[in-house]
Amino acid sequence: MSPIDDIRRYTPTNEQEERDRLVMLSLLQSGQELFSRDNAIAHFTASAWITSPDRQLVLMCYHNLYDSWSWLGGHADGDHDLAAVALREVREESGLAHARLVSPDIYSLEILTVDGHVKKGQYVSSHLHLNLTYLVEADPREALSTKPDENSGLGWFTREGAIAASTEPWFRERIYPKLNAKLDG
Hints:
Nucleoside Triphosphate Pyrophosphohydrolase; five-stranded mixed sheet; three-stranded antiparallel sheet; globular
């Protein structure tokens, strides 16, 4: 399946997802290159909501750029298999060798704003992340290792603790509660 097919098939669970889904589909149909950071306005990313097998704990990283506890994920960088991107980012950013996708299906989708910032000495203009989130499961007993150029901490939190640990209002109010609610249904 292609990302456009996956997004078409995805059933939104709220108004944010429905509207963001329509924007993503429109952009995909526009012919723009959306799977590379070369598109300075909007490009695809993939994130992972990483839970323990009993779905009671969530793995978060302390993200250096955002100065906040957050989910793990990253840029597509030309890869159209966004589930594979999410899993690759989990392994790179946490050291988890045995993390696994619960399903190859999209768990959540969202368009996220990224403020302008400096990365590796270069200014990056404000832009949009067209983000697909995947549910990933991992064993909390497995050893973790940070990726110092991206994060400076990793930790397992209760579901509520993961929300409270974030300092990003949009994620605390809309994104992380939505992801946790989906674990129950």
